[in-house]
Amino acid sequence: MAKSKYEFWLSFGNGAEKLRLPVLPSVLNVSNSSKNESVDIAKLGEVTIIQDPVAKMFNFSSFFPREESPLIEYTGILFPWDYIKMIERWKNSGKPIRFVVTGTPINYAVSIEDFNYREGEKDVGDYDYDILLKEYKFISVRKIEQGKPKQKATRPNPKPKSKTYTVKKGDTLIAIARKHYGKSGRWRDIWNANKDAIIKRDKRNLKQPGHWIHIGAKLSMPS
After folding, report:
1. For the domain bounded by 163-221, which CATH number is listed?
2. Which residues contact 6 (CB under 8 A, 6 or more apart)?
3. The pTM is what?
4. 185 with 175: CB under 8 angstroms?
5. Each residue of 90-145: pLDDT tens digit?
6. For the chain, which residues make up each domain, given as ranges?
7. Shortest CA distance to 172 belongs to which of 188, 161, 159?
8. How many Å separate Cα 67 from the centre of its chain?
9. Does 2.40.30 match the CATH number of domain 8-135?
């Protein structure tokens, strides 16, 4: 019997482990939410797989033979239980595998949704199986680093520059307050800020606060 040009491959761990199905299934079922299609293996080369956002499902049935026969696609097959244990281990890992059918556009990362097997109905030692594969969608999750919010550097409030006034001829504290603050009553603020110096300069200010100021004296002007 002539061998098919198609090969069914399952691989795991980015190709670290590979399994080629020894006997091709007679039918491959390809389905998605909008269309179900059963494809004869003999016509598999004519299948067009449309890249749509819906995950595809692949299911097929075949068997793992105990002995080599004309149905087998290659020599050096494994024992049926070796195939079964390998597929079950991949399924239980929870990780995707790759499903490839050579000669077709079928090359997908898939998850093993279901895998059933039973002792063959024809020959003792063979194991029939059914397998359902679902296209696996890889999702990249971008991690956003959330650093501590930067605290704005606070600048110390600069001390207000002290303003001074040089006493001129004819000045009085009342006149100076009216000129600088627009309020003559603030002469007491000027007096309180400068009384030590004013009294030191003229003791008469002890009895008459602020009445005796001298030309050229520098007065601190409070804000």
Report:
1. 3.10.350
2. 24, 41, 44, 45, 101, 102, 103, 104
3. 0.56
4. no
5. 999 999 999 999 989 999 999 999 999 999 877 889 999 999 999 998 776 666 66
6. 8-135, 163-221
7. 188
8. 52
9. yes
